[in-house]
Amino acid sequence: MTGFASCPGIVIITLITSLISIPVKAEIWTNEISDVQYGRIGSNVTLLCSASRNGSAVEWRLNGTRVASSFAVLQNGNLILTNSDSTMEGNYSCHDKKGQLLRATALRLGYGPALLRIHCIAANYYSICCSWEQNVKTFLPTEYISTFRHASKASETCHQDFFRTNVCTIKNPKNWHSSYVVNITEVNPLGSTFTLSRIQFLDIVKPDPPERVSAEAVHGSPRRLRMYWEYPATWPKESSFPLRFQVQYKPMESRSWSVVEATHLTTELTDVLAGHFHIIQVRAMDLLGNGNWSEWSTEIKALPWLEPTPKPEESESSTQSHTENTDHSSTSESKVESEEQYEKLALLVSLGSLGGVFLALLAFFTILIWVRHKGKEETSKQELTSMMKMKSLPM
């Protein structure tokens, strides 16, 4: 019974012993990587194997798969990657004949630092904000060191944003009329490079766009709009540096902008298109003309005052009044037309009467002439008869 009871312990010990005796083929996992190696794209990269000194044969794997000999050369157990490119990145592992892991290396490929593009702007007279971009994407972990100096002063630190590694701020510039030299140094595992940029403070002043832009219709004026806005929050209104403004506006259907200037926080547009929605924007600039105009504010839409339409009761009464006026005017017009017709008829009757009298006189004279002519013919006939009788008498 005692020997049987001890069987479970014997079985466990036997299993552990058998597991230890089995060779283990280790795979590359993130927590097994003992080294990170960086290389320049396009160059030859050599990966070392820790057990290659005795000249024993080893096997290299990339992400668990045996490395092809087409792009790699084995030399004394070390792996040489020729003309490396981004496809060769990954987790490399070196194994002995039994497949045991000898060394693990994470290879990261990229480029060394190059000159940067630096852009500085001043949203007010109390700070300068500089940002930069890479001309060459390095694909490697990168850090930046930013400093500045003006005139012959010593270099000072440009305060970098913790969340944006490519931005720094020069706080409270001491001399607005002098130039500043900004120095940004880029550092990565393949080296470092610095870039210098000279700026003239008054040339880079550029306010942020005005805020809370609004517009309202002007009662009784269908071609006017009244505008309001506020200073940008980054430009203190109580400072000694006032701003001037430009307002651009156009009907929504148009492509052409109209522009007016203002020095206060309100203005009135006097030539808008009646009955049409308008798009309006505002921008700002230092009153003395230093620096540049801000970007345009966000577009707003506004409609000028429209004449109110009459209520239904007013419409009916006005319609009835209009009908009565129309009837009255129609009656007057009918009377006028009747009088004109009577006058025309009287004129025609008069003309007809005159024509009748003229025809009667013409007939009378015609008959009179005919009677006289007839009387003469009878007299002539009688005289001719008398003469014929006298000739016929005997002598």
TrEMBL record:
InterPro entries: CD47_Vset (IPR013270), FN3_dom (IPR003961), FN3_sf (IPR036116), Hematopoietin_rcpt_L_F3_CS (IPR003530), Ig-like_dom (IPR007110), Ig-like_dom_sf (IPR036179), Ig-like_fold (IPR013783), IL11/IL27_subunit_beta (IPR053073)
TM ranges: 345-371
Boundaries of every Ig-like domain copy: 8-94
Assigned keywords, A-Z: Glycoprotein, Immunoglobulin domain, Membrane, Receptor, Repeat, Signal, Transmembrane, Transmembrane helix
CDD domains given in the database record: FN3
Position of the signal peptide: 1-26
Protein family membership: Belongs to the type I cytokine receptor family. Type 3 subfamily.
Entry keyword annotation includes tRNA processing: no
Residue span(s) of domain Fibronectin type-III: 209-305
Annotated region (Disordered), positions in chain: 307-336
A Pfam family hit: V-set_CD47
Organism: Huso huso (Beluga)
Composition bias, Low complexity: 317-333
Protein's recorded name: Interleukin-11 receptor subunit alpha isoform X1
Origin superkingdom: Eukaryota
